[in-house]
Amino acid sequence: MCFMRRAKESIRVLFAERRWERKTCSVKHPHADSHNPVKRFWLFAVLAATVLLRLPGIEWGLPPTTPEVAASGLRSSYAFDERLILEAVAKADMKRLDFDPRDHHWGTLHLDLVLLALDGAEAAGFFRSPWRMAYHDMIQGDFVRVYVVGRTVAIFAALFTVWLLFRFSYGAFAAMLVAVSPSHVLQSDQVRVDVTMTAFVILTLLFGLRIHEPDKNLSATDATAWPQFLVLGIAAGLAISAKYSALTAVAPIALAALWLKRFPLRGILAVAGGGLLGFLASWPYFLSRLFAPLEISKGLRGYVEAYGNAPPPQFLISAGKLLELHGLNIVRFSMGLPAFLLAAGGIAWMLRRRSRSDWTILAAIGGSVVILFPLHWPLVRYDLPLTALLGLCAGAALERFPKRWRGWLTAVALAMPLAGSIAQIKFMTSTHPANLALQRVLEIVPPGNVIARLVPEEPPLDEKIYPMAQNIVLDDLTANPPAWVLMTDLPEVPYPEATLALLRSSYEEVADFGSHRIFAWSTFGEAGAPQDWKYTHPHFVLYRKRS
Predict the structure, then answer these.
(1) pLDDT score, position 106
(2) Are strands 484-488 and 507-513 parallel, antiparallel or unpaired?
(3) pLDDT tens by residue, 325-374
(4) 181 and 155 in contact (C-beta within 8 Å)?
(5) Cross-strand partners of 471
(6) How far apart are the first and last CA of the chain?
């Protein structure tokens, strides 16, 4: 009982803020935590939880380093974009001061950080062979280390995000939520740009709120305000250089800060100049290629084509349905229902309160929602900025409850995402179903037989030995039925009814590969889960055509 009283009291102290902080969702005084041992304890505890939830699954989803897999030429994990990033990073080289990955599809900040990590780890002797050789030649042991080092960059970005959220007056709950969020845990164990982009979006918001802190009391014409706008612009530029889609989140933050200061000329120039500096900070090769813009424009054009064009008709989702799916995904795979309801209450209260800081946060949320429509796909990684921003709103709502309730509400709100993260860790630490399918195919499918499947990377089969037949989603299998079919639940659209009828009438099931689900209540089951959520635990069924 004594322990419970102390725990409840420490949680109440954690959420207690100064009088001016209760009036607005602003940022803390820079030294607020350093003078409060309880808050400092919770900061370190949440940072430790962030690491402990992400380290167990850091080696997930890698194919075995066997001669059969090496012969396939595929070096992809089962989160397919990781291969594209690593192959791009391998083209650059710190020793030559060459930071150009020759791939500008996402932005280059995260890629440069991965390059620094891998080249630095190689210089420190972490690899037994050069990491590029270890990756391309699939050297046992070192191949896994390449992915581990690359994924560690995202883990550090997750820690940075959690630390930044603690700088907000209502950020303690948001920091805890991000630390245990299942989607954030999953994305932190991938060589992808989204976690880093989210960190710099939150950094931009932090600087945006500091411009109009109540205790700063800076006027629109105050000459000391322009350095803050400069720093705001730099943070925004870094976020965009991490992933271009961050533009719609950081631009409203900057515009809100300028609007609340009545658009001072120095502030406008400082934000614009800082944004350019931040964006080019991750493009150190830009000046050397100033007279060869076609190479850079090619990568940018590919980004526009990838996200500007509508998907094929069978994958097209209406705007209303897309927004609904993202909302459901945030509830199920990012926040949990109690935290989402708290966030909704916080938004309603912020709209009613109408403080300057609240408008800035709401503008960032609106910008993060807008970008979901041109991105087209209801993937959980697109929701990472919203998870952190809605966590701030939930933290604001918690402040409206009596102190005696806040500890219990926090525990209830974090229970669902924490259980979802534990379930994901269980998937990530188990043998991946694609590796089980790979082993079984090599055992029972005679060489030379064609196999219809979704993608060549899952499982990574040598197409010289097992040619890939039709695509099981896009092609009509009835026109030329293949000898073998490997079905999976990764597609987000139903299989053609003709294909399913063909399997029932002409094929026999010879193997089934999946993972056992725990804590299914934490995500309301797996029905309708997006593709990138199922990367860790897809379900496969191998079919053989009857004689």
Answers:
(1) 81
(2) unpaired
(3) 999 999 999 999 999 999 999 999 999 988 888 999 999 999 999 999 99
(4) no
(5) 453
(6) 70
| pTM of the shown model | 0.90
Burial 180-209 (b: 16+ CB within 10 A, else e): bbbbbbbbbbbbbbbbbbbbbbbbbbbbbb
Among the listed ranges 365-374, 420-429, 464-473, which one has the minimum average pLDDT value? 464-473
For residue 506, what are its two tokens? Answer: 């002409």
| Other CB atoms within 10 A of residue 389 CB | 27
Give 398's pLDDT tier (boundaries 50, 70, 90): very high
Chain centroid, CA 180 distance in Å? 13
Residue with tokens 């960032």: 364
As given in the structure block, the two tokens for residue 14 are 């954690």
Which string of DSSP letters, residue by residue, matches 355-392? -HHHHHHHHHHHHHHHTHHHH-S--GGGGHHHHHHHHH
Per-residue three-class SS string for 389-451: HHHHHHHHHHCCCCHHHHHHHHHHHHHHHHHHHHHHHHHHHCCCHHHHHHHHHHHHCCCCCCE
Question: If DSSP codes are grouped into helix, strand and coil, which group holds residue 95?
Answer: helix
SS3 state of residue 208: helix
Mean pLDDT of the chain: 87
Measured torsion, CA atoms of residues 99, 101, 104, 105, in degrees rounded to the nearest 10: -140
Contacts of 297 (CB under 8 A, 6+ apart): none
What counts of helices (H) and strands (E) characterise the chain? 23, 5
